[in-house]
Amino acid sequence: MKIKTGKGTISLMVLLAIWSVSAIASLPGLAISPILGDLNKIFPEATDLEIQMLTSLPSLLIIPFVLLSGKLSVGRDNLKILMVGLSVFFLSGVACLFAKSMAWLIVISCILGIGAGMVIPLSTGLVVDYFTGDYRVRQLGLSSSINNLTLVLATVVTGYLANVDWHLPFLVYTLPGVSLVLSFFLKRRRSEPEPEQSIQRRHKMIDRRKLVELMLFYFFITFAVLVVTFYTAFLVDDYKIDSSFSGVLISLFFLAIMLPGLFIDNIIRLLKRNVNLVSLGLVCAGLLCVGIFRDKAMLVVGVLCAGFGYGVMQPVVYDKAATIAPPRSATLALSFVMAMNYLAVMVCPFIVDILRHIFGTHSDRFPFFFNAALVLAAAVFTFRRRDNFTLGLDESYYKN
Q: Quick count: other Cβ atoms within 10 Å of Cβ 8?
């Protein structure tokens, strides 16, 4: 079976290898989430600082190594970087299964963060290397869908495994071994050069202004929707709803992010320059639904709207990042944009706490209302700037 790329064709095994890297990009931190509440029992001697380090240090290390991986990719063999990153990721995952102390778990998790950081920009960089034009847009959407679907499935699996033994959730960190095996198909079938008519060929270097705009926009939309993952559990508890329902809502949120990627090219063709405007409207409506209504059905509608809106914008941002750089620097441009996701994850709780202090409120609804107001303002601004490259889809975007 041959898959069209816009540059030629690739085999199904090469495509599966690319998809497998997309599938593992969101795994860091996943294994530890089901046992966070039990860490004090598992390691009675562990301090609160050590527990905080276990959750924050790996994420902190991901950011510089995402950028380092992007920098190393310029003019070098991306597959070597990928295989090194996958090896470190996989071996660290295996080591986590045998960790017997908090100190060792912290050290191993940090090394795992380094490996994951090297792999993450290549999860989209490979798509950009092998595909072009409409084929690339479609594959970036599928890559985003696979990423989020894996996140949902792995969350369910790790939660179940944690009830059996606290070591078992770390089995999800061995999945990079599958990608490592499949990466040999990538070595046998290298990507083709970008066609002469490609928009990337027009650039001699990364368009820094557009890159900064994309970084800021991606940080903003990620920060806006993160309140769903960080604060839904508190809101559900405040609404006197069964706490397990928050897990259902978060799973539906990630499933909604996954859905648009399956037909992102059709969405772009339908909405054109209004893609971000409509998506921001959905995110705003979704956040307001969650903040206003106490009914389960409306909470579901809210998280689905917010997730779907974000799920449309994410692959579009990635594709735009690829188009503002020459082929050799596309992964570097993507690494800067993708780093914004992890930066938003790290600072979101701190920013919300500061805002709560400024506004003098401890309401669990506040993060949803405040972010909805921010998104509404962004939507109004986007309406006026729909021809802008970052906020809309300008003419150059369609000339692939």
A: 12
